[in-house]
Write a structure and sequence with these properties.
By secondary structure, this protein is α+β, with helices and mostly antiparallel strands. It is built from 10 helices and 10 strands. The chain has a 5-stranded antiparallel β-sheet with strand order 1-2-3-5-4, covered by helices on one side. The chain has a 3-stranded antiparallel β-sheet with strand order 6-8-9, with helices on one face. Strands 7-10 form a two-stranded antiparallel sheet.
Length: 326
C-alpha cells in the first residue's frame, strides 16, 4: 500500500544526526532535538566540544530554493562585514544547504551557529535596551547596504505587505462583510499614502523583516547578534523600523521604547524626513501582513485559532492604529 500523502512532516532528529549533520563538519553531536515549529522547523544541536547550533529544515510550502540561497548569501555577507549575526555553517563540499527527500517532497536544511550571549530582555532598563537595539539595527543596515545576490528572493514591497495578505485573509472574513470592507478600505488608504510620498523616494535595501525588538542575543559587553532572517528581503527600510514600533505597541511599551530606539538608530544612521513619515504607515501595513501571514499558514498551523476572537482582537488593534496614525 502506498504511503498516505502528508502536508508536512517532522524529520527524525536521530536521522539528522546520522545522515545530515556529519556533512557540516561540526564534530561529534551529543544531542539533536526538535526545538520549534512555525515558519520552518528548527532543531537545537549540541556537540561534544560544547558548541550549540540550530538546524533549520525549511517547510516546502514556505520558501523557495532561491529564497533560501539569497538569505544564506545575506548572512555570509554579514560575516564578511564582521557584523554581528548568526552564521551559516558550510558543508564539506562548500555548500551551505542540503536537500532531503521528505514524505511531502523536497525539503532543504541549513545549519547556523548560535548567536552569542543571552536572550534580549526589556524587563530592566527598557529605554537603554531599546537605544542599544536601535544602534545595532543601524549597523546591520549599514552592513547590508552593498549586499547583492544572484538569487531572486521575494521583495518586501506593497504587494508583499498588503495585496498578497488580503488574498489569504479574505476567505476567513467572507461572512463578516463589514469587517472585510473595512480592512480593504484601510489597506487602500495605506497603500495610496505610501505611493503618494512618493514611494520611490523611500530608502530601500535588504531588510531583516522581523525586527520586533528581539531576534537578537546580547553579550555582557552589549554586543547584539541578530538571527532568524527568514522574513527578510529587499524592501523599504522604514518597514524594518516600523516592525519595532508595531511590536512595542503590542506590548504596550511604545512610550518607553520607541523614541529611544529611533534616537539610537539615527545616531549611527541618519534618516530622511520622508522615511520617518512612512513608519506609521508601515505599522498599519504590518498589521495586515501579520494577519495574512497567519492565515496563509493555516493549512499547517490549523484553522481553529483564526476564529472570531482572533479577528476581533486584530481588527481592534488595526482600528486603534488607524485612529492614531492615519
Amino acid at each position: 500500500m502506498p504511503l498516505f500523502p502528508v502536508i508536512e512532516s517532522i524529520l527524525s532528529p536521530q536521522a539528522l544526526v546520522k545522515d545530515v549533520l556529519p556533512d557540516f563538519g561540526i564534530g561529534n553531536v551529543t544531542t539533536c532535538q526538535f526545538f520549534s515549529g512555525g515558519f520552518n522547523h528548527t532543531y537545537i544541536v549540541k556537540t561534544v566540544d560544547g558548541n550549540t547550533y540550530y538546524a533549520r529544515v525549511y517547510r516546502q510550502s514556505w520558501r523557495t530554493l532561491n529564497d533560501i540561497l539569497c538569505e544564506l548569501d545575506a548572512l555570509i555577507h554579514l560575516k564578511q562585514k564582521r557584523c554581528a549575526a548568526a552564521k551559516p555553517c558550510a558543508r564539506q563540499d562548500g555548500s551551505y544547504h542540503c536537500v532531503l527527500d521528505a514524505p511531502e517532497g523536497i525539503r532543504y536544511v541549513a545549519l547556523f551557529s548560535e548567536a552569542l550571549g543571552s536572550e534580549l530582555s526589556y524587563a530592566q532598563r527598557p529605554q537603554a535596551v531599546a537605544y542599544q537595539y536601535g544602534q545595532a539595527v543601524a549597523r546591520l543596515h549599514n552592513a547590508l547596504d552593498d549586499f547583492t545576490s544572484p538569487y531572486r528572493r521575494f521583495c518586501i514591497d506593497l504587494d508583499h505587505l498588503i495585496d498578497e495578505p488580503l488574498q489569504h485573509i479574505e476567505p476567513f472574513l467572507s461572512y463578516r462583510t463589514e469587517d472585510w470592507a473595512y480592512l480593504k478600505a484601510v489597506a487602500n488608504v495605506v497603500r495610496q499614502r505610501i505611493l503618494d510620498m512618493p514611494a520611490s523616494t523611500l530608502e530601500q535595501g535588504f531588510c531583516h523583516g522581523d525586527l520586533q525588538g528581539y531576534h537578537a542575543n546580547v553579550t555582557e559587553d552589549g554586543t547584539m547578534t541578530f538571527y532568524d532572517f527568514d522574513c527578510g528581503g529587499f524592501g523599504y527600510r522604514s518597514y524594518d523600523l516600523a516592525v519595532f514600533l508595531w511590536s512595542s505597541r503590542l506590548e504596550r511599551q511604545e512610550q518607553l521604547r520607541w523614541s529611544s530606539f529611533l534616537r539610537g538608530y539615527q545616531e549611527i544612521r541618519p534618516l530622511n524626513t520622508v522615511d520617518i513619515s512612512a513608519i506609521p504607515l508601515f505599522v498599519s501595513a504590518r498589521y495586515i501582513w501579520h494577519m495574512g501571514m497567519h492565515t496563509q499558514n493555516s493549512s499547517t498551523w490549523g484553522r481553529g485559532q483564526f476564529n472570531d476572537a482572533y479577528f476581533d482582537q486584530h481588527l481592534a488593534s488595526l482600528r486603534a492604529v488607524e485612529t492614531e496614525y492615519l
